Amino acid sequence: MVDFELTEEQKAACKMAHEFALNEMRPIALECDKEGKIPDELIKKAAAAGLTAMAIPEEYGGGGLDQLTAAMVSEELFWGCAGIATTLGANSLATTPMMIAANDDQRQRYFPRLCDPDDPKFAAFCLTEPGAGSDAAAISTTIQETDDGYILNGQKCFITNGGIADFYTVFCTFDKEKKYGGIGAVIVERAYEGVSIGKKEDKMGIRASNTTEVIFDNVKVPKENLLVPMGQGFYNVMTTLDLTRASVAAAGVGVARAAFEEALKYAKERVQFGRPIIAQQSINFMLAEMAMKIEAGRRLYQLAAWKATKGLPCSLESSYAKAFGGDLAMEVTTNAVQIHGGYGYMKEYLVEKLMRDAKIMQIYEGTAQIQRLVIGANLMGITDAYPWG
After folding, report:
1. Active site residue: 24, 213, 262, 365, which one?
2. Counting C-beta atoms within 10 Å of the first and last residue's C-beta, which end of the chain has fewer, N or C?
3. What's the pTM?
C-alpha cells in the first residue's frame, strides 16, 4: 500500500527547518546575496540546530537523518535562501563518499569535527576540475603511492565550501591511462602543506555560498587517509550522486515554492484594469501551472529519497527528480519575475534573486543534460514499462 503520511519525527524536522529558514535565513537573504558571505553568527545558529551535520550518524554527534527526511529539510532551507542552504548542505555531499567507504578510524577522526555546535566545521567534495566536469574519466589530479603514504597534485574548481573547509574528500587518478578504472579518493586536511585556495568565484546566484578553486601541490597524504582505492572511485562518485540528487531536486522545489508564493501574493495585490491581476486568466493559469508542477516535483524527489532510504536502487528516480526539479526551479522563478513585471527585475524584490539562484539547479551535481543521458541509457535497456513490477 502506498503511504504518504509523514512520521512525527519528519514533521518536527521539517517544522524546525522551516522556522529556521523563516526567522534566521529570510531576513538576511538579500544582504548575504549582495555581500557574498554568511555571518558567522548564523553558521553557529545552524550548527546548534544540527543543520550542518544532518546526515551524519548520531553516534558521531550528527542528526542521523534518513535520505527522505534530509531531502524535505533541504526543501525548507532552500525556500529560505539557496546560497545559505548550499553552504549548510555541502557537508552532506562531502561526507556521503565517506558514509559509503570510510573505515571506523576515518569516521571517528572526521565525522565528529562536523558535529560540534560550539566550533562548527565544514568539509568539501572535490571532484570537478577545469578540464573534467561531467566527464569524470578526464580527472587529471594525480596521486602517487610512496613508502609512507601518497603524493597528491592537481587543481579542483567550483568547489562549494572550498575556502572554508576543514578537510576535503578528493577524487583523483592513480593511472590516467585506465580512465574510470584509475580513479580513487583520499581525505585531505586543509592544514596539510601544499594545500591552497585559489580564486573565489563571483557567481550569478547562490552568492552567499563559498565557491573556490582548491589546489594540491605535492601534498603528502598519510596512508590511513586513503578513502577509496584505485578502480573503485567512479563507483563511489556515482553512488554518492544517486544518494544526494534527491536533496538537490528538493532544493529546486524549495526555490520554486518561494518564487510561487511571492508571485501569488503579488498577483493578489497588484491591480490592473480595475482588478487584481490574478483574475486575469493569463496570470491565473501561470500560477496554476506553478502549483501543479511544484507538487509533482515534490513527489518525484520524495520517491527517489524514499528508495535511497530503503536501500533500493534509485539512480533512475534520482535523475528523474533532479532533471525535473532543476527545470522546475528555472521555469517557476522566470514566470514569477514575469508576473511581477518591471518590479521583478529589481534587486529589492526577492524573485530577482530567486531567478538567479535557480539556474544552478540545472547544473550542479549533474547537469540537466547528464540526467537525461542517464534516463535515456536506462530506456535503452527497458523492454517492459509496466509500472507495478
Report:
1. 365
2. N
3. 0.96
